[in-house]
């Protein structure tokens, strides 16, 4: 069972796609959000959750004070589940769900940035190539996409190489939780 850990909808359960996703464990989400609270990035944040799956990370951010959250996933089943989760939690005024490829969506932001993002989650499938991940990170590092105090959170397998940080993003910290390595980066 996946649930929101804390905030305005804390304790509420989430549906998860029946296949094709690897939901972030509750323990890992709790640790991620503890660190984000330390970085003081959540309150009033504009959030992007790429490879969103059920939307658990972005929905947790909305529950904890983010004012605008975009969940992006290319799998139709994940998009449908994320939309149901947004509706059941009553977060439709804050959260939007987009069915799109993460790399294409990020490239669109780089080409025409809107309001800068304060927090970005990337929790791609572990088998996503390092080159594909590097392309998404490079798009996010484009001028105008991130706010100066933004934080980018990347989840990978502990067996994967550290992401290749493009010019414009620098590693803040890495924390491991079982099989999951969580990287935190900010604009450099």
UniProtKB/TrEMBL annotation:
UniProtKB keywords: Methyltransferase, Transferase
NCBIfam families for this protein: 16S rRNA (guanine(966)-N(2))-methyltransferase RsmD (TIGR00095)
Domain of life: Bacteria
Protein species of origin: Xylanimonas protaetiae
Protein name: 16S rRNA (Guanine(966)-N(2))-methyltransferase RsmD
The keyword Repeat appears for this protein: no
GO molecular function annotations of the record: 16S rRNA (guanine(966)-N(2))-methyltransferase activity; nucleic acid binding
CDD domains attached to this UniProt entry: AdoMet_MTases
Assigned EC number: 2.1.1.171
Any matching Pfam family: Cons_hypoth95
Record's keyword annotation contains Transferase: yes
């Amino acid at each position: 069972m996946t649930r929101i850990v804390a905030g305005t909808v804390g304790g509420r359960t989430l549906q998860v796609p029946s296949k094709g996703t690897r939901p972030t464990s509750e323990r890992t989400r709790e640790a991620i959000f503890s660190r984000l609270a330390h970085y003081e990035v959540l309150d009033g944040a504009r959030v992007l959750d790429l490879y969103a799956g059920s939307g658990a990370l972005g929905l947790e951010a909305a529950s904890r004070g983010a004012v605008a959250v975009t969940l992006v996933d290319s799998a139709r089943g994940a998009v449908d589940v994320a939309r149901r989760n947004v509706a059941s939690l009553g977060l439709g005024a804050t959260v939007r769900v987009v069915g799109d490829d993460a790399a294409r969506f990020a490239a669109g932001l780089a080409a025409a940035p809107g309001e800068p993002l304060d927090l970005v989650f990337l929790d791609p499938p572990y088998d996503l190539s390092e080159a594909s991940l590097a392309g998404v990170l490079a798009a996010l590092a484009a001028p105008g996409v991130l706010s100066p105090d933004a934080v980018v959170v990347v989840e990978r397998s502990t067996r994967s190489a550290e992401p290749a940080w493009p010019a414009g993003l620098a590693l803040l910290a890495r924390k491991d939780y079982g099989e999951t390595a969580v990287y935190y980066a900010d604009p450099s």
